[in-house]
Amino acid sequence: MTHLFDVDSVVLDIEGTTSATGFVVDVLYPYSRARFAALLAERSEEPEVARAVAQVRELLGEPDADAVRIEKALNAWLDEDRKATPLKTLQGIVWAEGFARGDLTSHFFPDVVPALRRWHAAGVRLHVYSSGSVAAQRAWFRSSPEGDLLPLVDGLYDTENAGPKQSPESYRAIADALGAADPGRLLFLSDRPGELDAAREAGWLTVGVRRPGEPYYEQGVGSHLQAGVFDDITIARSTT
After folding, report:
1. Which terminus of the chain faces fewer neighbouring Cβ atoms within 10 Å, N or C?
2. Burial, 110: exposed, middle or buried (Cβ in 10 Å; 0-12, 13-18, 19+)?
3. By three-state DSSP, how is residue 19 classified?
Protein backbone atom coordinates (compact mmCIF):
# COMPACT_ATOMS: atom_id res chain seq x y z
CA MET A 1 0.00 0.00 0.00
CA THR A 2 1.32 3.43 -0.96
CA HIS A 3 0.92 6.38 1.39
CA LEU A 4 0.66 9.87 -0.12
CA PHE A 5 1.77 12.96 1.82
CA ASP A 6 1.75 16.66 1.06
CA VAL A 7 4.49 17.96 3.35
CA ASP A 8 7.26 20.54 3.41
CA SER A 9 9.91 18.45 5.17
CA VAL A 10 10.80 14.82 5.80
CA VAL A 11 12.92 13.97 8.84
CA LEU A 12 14.75 10.66 8.67
CA ASP A 13 16.01 8.26 11.28
CA ILE A 14 19.06 6.28 10.12
CA GLU A 15 19.46 2.91 11.85
CA GLY A 16 16.72 0.52 10.72
CA THR A 17 15.16 3.20 8.51
CA THR A 18 17.60 4.34 5.83
CA SER A 19 20.34 1.90 6.76
CA ALA A 20 20.92 -1.50 8.31
CA THR A 21 21.40 -1.59 12.07
CA GLY A 22 23.68 -4.57 11.57
CA PHE A 23 26.16 -2.45 9.62
CA VAL A 24 26.39 0.04 12.47
CA VAL A 25 26.72 -2.65 15.14
CA ASP A 26 29.03 -5.00 13.23
CA VAL A 27 31.25 -2.48 11.41
CA LEU A 28 31.12 0.95 13.03
CA TYR A 29 30.95 -0.08 16.69
CA PRO A 30 34.09 -2.24 16.56
CA TYR A 31 35.87 0.48 14.57
CA SER A 32 35.22 3.05 17.29
CA ARG A 33 35.93 0.61 20.13
CA ALA A 34 39.41 -0.04 18.72
CA ARG A 35 40.18 3.69 18.57
CA PHE A 36 38.75 5.17 21.78
CA ALA A 37 41.98 4.72 23.74
CA ALA A 38 44.09 6.57 21.18
CA LEU A 39 41.51 9.34 20.91
CA LEU A 40 41.46 9.89 24.67
CA ALA A 41 45.24 9.74 24.96
CA GLU A 42 46.16 11.93 22.01
CA ARG A 43 43.36 14.47 21.70
CA SER A 44 41.99 15.05 25.18
CA GLU A 45 42.74 18.78 24.97
CA GLU A 46 40.54 19.34 21.93
CA PRO A 47 37.34 21.16 22.98
CA GLU A 48 34.89 18.63 21.54
CA VAL A 49 36.73 15.68 23.09
CA ALA A 50 37.17 17.46 26.42
CA ARG A 51 33.46 18.34 26.56
CA ALA A 52 32.46 14.74 25.85
CA VAL A 53 34.84 13.43 28.51
CA ALA A 54 33.36 15.85 31.04
CA GLN A 55 29.88 14.58 30.11
CA VAL A 56 31.00 10.96 30.63
CA ARG A 57 32.33 11.86 34.08
CA GLU A 58 29.05 13.58 34.91
CA LEU A 59 26.99 10.58 33.80
CA LEU A 60 29.21 8.27 35.85
CA GLY A 61 29.16 10.57 38.86
CA GLU A 62 32.96 10.27 38.89
CA PRO A 63 34.51 13.72 38.38
CA ASP A 64 38.06 12.33 38.60
CA ALA A 65 37.62 9.39 36.22
CA ASP A 66 40.79 8.86 34.20
CA ALA A 67 41.13 7.86 30.55
CA VAL A 68 41.10 4.14 31.35
CA ARG A 69 37.82 4.51 33.28
CA ILE A 70 36.34 6.66 30.51
CA GLU A 71 37.22 4.07 27.87
CA LYS A 72 35.73 1.29 30.01
CA ALA A 73 32.49 3.25 30.35
CA LEU A 74 32.31 3.95 26.62
CA ASN A 75 32.79 0.27 25.80
CA ALA A 76 30.16 -0.76 28.36
CA TRP A 77 27.69 1.70 26.81
CA LEU A 78 28.52 0.28 23.39
CA ASP A 79 27.66 -3.21 24.66
CA GLU A 80 24.35 -1.86 25.99
CA ASP A 81 23.70 0.15 22.79
CA ARG A 82 23.10 3.08 25.10
CA LYS A 83 22.25 6.34 23.36
CA ALA A 84 24.54 8.44 25.54
CA THR A 85 25.39 11.79 23.98
CA PRO A 86 29.14 11.78 24.84
CA LEU A 87 29.49 8.25 23.45
CA LYS A 88 27.86 9.38 20.22
CA THR A 89 30.07 12.47 20.09
CA LEU A 90 33.28 10.48 20.42
CA GLN A 91 32.06 7.82 18.00
CA GLY A 92 31.27 10.58 15.54
CA ILE A 93 34.81 11.95 15.71
CA VAL A 94 36.32 8.52 15.11
CA TRP A 95 33.89 7.60 12.34
CA ALA A 96 34.26 10.92 10.54
CA GLU A 97 37.99 10.34 10.33
CA GLY A 98 37.45 6.77 9.16
CA PHE A 99 35.11 7.90 6.41
CA ALA A 100 37.48 10.70 5.40
CA ARG A 101 40.39 8.25 5.14
CA GLY A 102 38.35 5.81 3.09
CA ASP A 103 38.44 3.14 5.79
CA LEU A 104 34.64 3.24 5.96
CA THR A 105 31.79 3.53 3.46
CA SER A 106 28.26 3.99 4.76
CA HIS A 107 25.27 1.75 4.02
CA PHE A 108 21.84 2.59 2.60
CA PHE A 109 19.03 0.21 1.71
CA PRO A 110 18.57 0.03 -2.11
CA ASP A 111 15.22 1.86 -2.08
CA VAL A 112 16.45 4.83 -0.05
CA VAL A 113 18.73 6.92 -2.24
CA PRO A 114 16.40 6.95 -5.29
CA ALA A 115 13.53 8.06 -3.02
CA LEU A 116 15.63 10.80 -1.43
CA ARG A 117 16.56 12.09 -4.87
CA ARG A 118 12.89 12.09 -5.96
CA TRP A 119 11.72 13.90 -2.86
CA HIS A 120 14.51 16.46 -3.05
CA ALA A 121 13.76 17.10 -6.73
CA ALA A 122 10.11 17.67 -5.82
CA GLY A 123 11.13 20.50 -3.49
CA VAL A 124 10.75 18.59 -0.23
CA ARG A 125 13.35 19.51 2.39
CA LEU A 126 15.16 16.51 3.86
CA HIS A 127 16.57 16.38 7.37
CA VAL A 128 18.13 13.73 9.59
CA TYR A 129 17.43 13.08 13.27
CA SER A 130 19.59 10.32 14.69
CA SER A 131 21.11 9.35 18.01
CA GLY A 132 24.42 9.39 16.16
CA SER A 133 26.17 12.75 16.38
CA VAL A 134 25.83 15.43 13.73
CA ALA A 135 29.48 14.83 12.80
CA ALA A 136 28.76 11.13 12.26
CA GLN A 137 25.65 11.91 10.23
CA ARG A 138 27.56 14.34 8.02
CA ALA A 139 30.28 11.76 7.37
CA TRP A 140 27.67 9.04 6.78
CA PHE A 141 25.85 10.94 4.03
CA ARG A 142 29.06 12.26 2.50
CA SER A 143 30.59 8.76 2.20
CA SER A 144 27.82 6.64 0.69
CA PRO A 145 28.38 3.95 -1.95
CA GLU A 146 26.71 6.38 -4.38
CA GLY A 147 28.95 9.29 -3.50
CA ASP A 148 28.25 12.46 -1.54
CA LEU A 149 24.56 12.63 -0.58
CA LEU A 150 24.97 15.57 1.76
CA PRO A 151 23.68 18.09 -0.82
CA LEU A 152 20.29 16.36 -0.53
CA VAL A 153 20.08 17.13 3.20
CA ASP A 154 19.09 20.51 4.64
CA GLY A 155 19.60 19.86 8.34
CA LEU A 156 21.10 17.39 10.83
CA TYR A 157 19.81 16.83 14.37
CA ASP A 158 21.04 14.65 17.21
CA THR A 159 20.43 14.18 20.93
CA GLU A 160 22.66 17.16 21.72
CA ASN A 161 21.13 19.85 19.50
CA ALA A 162 17.55 18.52 19.63
CA GLY A 163 17.18 16.25 22.65
CA PRO A 164 16.20 12.62 23.37
CA LYS A 165 14.48 10.89 20.48
CA GLN A 166 11.54 9.63 22.56
CA SER A 167 10.68 13.08 23.93
CA PRO A 168 7.96 15.14 22.19
CA GLU A 169 9.88 18.28 23.19
CA SER A 170 12.70 17.25 20.87
CA TYR A 171 10.36 17.22 17.90
CA ARG A 172 8.92 20.57 18.92
CA ALA A 173 12.48 21.93 19.06
CA ILE A 174 13.20 20.63 15.56
CA ALA A 175 9.96 22.12 14.25
CA ASP A 176 10.97 25.47 15.72
CA ALA A 177 14.42 25.18 14.15
CA LEU A 178 12.82 24.47 10.78
CA GLY A 179 10.49 27.44 11.14
CA ALA A 180 7.50 25.14 10.77
CA ALA A 181 4.36 27.03 11.78
CA ASP A 182 2.34 23.83 11.24
CA PRO A 183 3.99 20.62 12.53
CA GLY A 184 1.47 18.72 10.43
CA ARG A 185 3.63 19.67 7.44
CA LEU A 186 6.49 17.58 8.84
CA LEU A 187 6.84 13.82 8.28
CA PHE A 188 9.04 11.62 10.47
CA LEU A 189 10.23 8.19 9.31
CA SER A 190 11.58 5.76 11.90
CA ASP A 191 11.50 2.08 12.83
CA ARG A 192 11.11 2.77 16.55
CA PRO A 193 7.59 3.03 18.00
CA GLY A 194 8.64 5.24 20.92
CA GLU A 195 10.15 7.80 18.55
CA LEU A 196 7.11 7.74 16.31
CA ASP A 197 4.83 8.23 19.31
CA ALA A 198 6.85 11.25 20.46
CA ALA A 199 6.77 12.85 17.00
CA ARG A 200 3.03 12.33 16.69
CA GLU A 201 2.46 13.84 20.13
CA ALA A 202 4.31 16.92 18.87
CA GLY A 203 1.85 17.15 15.97
CA TRP A 204 3.96 15.57 13.24
CA LEU A 205 2.90 13.05 10.62
CA THR A 206 4.60 9.68 11.00
CA VAL A 207 5.36 6.49 9.12
CA GLY A 208 6.89 3.44 10.76
CA VAL A 209 9.44 1.75 8.51
CA ARG A 210 9.41 -2.04 9.00
CA ARG A 211 12.25 -3.91 7.35
CA PRO A 212 12.65 -7.68 7.88
CA GLY A 213 15.67 -8.51 9.98
CA GLU A 214 15.77 -5.17 11.77
CA PRO A 215 15.53 -5.15 15.59
CA TYR A 216 12.07 -3.56 15.78
CA TYR A 217 10.47 -5.49 12.93
CA GLU A 218 8.65 -8.00 15.11
CA GLN A 219 7.49 -5.32 17.53
CA GLY A 220 5.72 -3.43 14.78
CA VAL A 221 4.90 0.26 14.73
CA GLY A 222 1.73 0.38 16.77
CA SER A 223 -1.04 2.53 15.31
CA HIS A 224 1.27 4.41 12.93
CA LEU A 225 1.11 3.99 9.18
CA GLN A 226 3.77 1.56 8.08
CA ALA A 227 5.98 1.06 5.04
CA GLY A 228 8.29 -1.79 4.14
CA VAL A 229 10.35 0.30 1.73
CA PHE A 230 10.52 3.99 0.82
CA ASP A 231 8.74 3.16 -2.46
CA ASP A 232 5.60 2.75 -0.31
CA ILE A 233 5.77 6.48 0.47
CA THR A 234 4.89 9.14 -2.11
CA ILE A 235 5.68 12.69 -1.10
CA ALA A 236 4.68 15.89 -2.83
CA ARG A 237 4.82 19.50 -1.78
CA SER A 238 1.99 21.85 -2.64
CA THR A 239 2.96 25.39 -3.54
CA THR A 240 -0.36 26.98 -2.59
Report:
1. C
2. exposed
3. strand
Class of domain 25-101: mainly alpha
- For the segment 166-180, what is each residue's pLDDT rounded down to a tens digit? 999 999 999 999 999
β pairing state of 233-236 and 3-6: parallel
Q: For residue 81, count CB atoms less than 10 angstroms from its CB and return exposed for 0-12, middle for 13-18, buried for 19 or more.
A: middle
> 56-112, pLDDT tens digit by residue?
999 999 999 999 999 999 999 999 989 899 999 999 999 999 999 999 999 999 999
CA distance 132 to 165: 11
**Helix-strand-coil percent breakdown of the chain, rounded to 5?**
45, 15, 35
CB neighbours (10 Å) of residue 45? 7
In 45-202, which ranges are continuous DSSP H helix?
47-60, 67-80, 85-101, 112-121, 134-142, 168-178, 193-201
Domain 3-19+107-236 carries which CATH code?
A: 3.40.50.1000
Segments making up each domain of the chain, as ranges: 3-19+107-236, 25-101
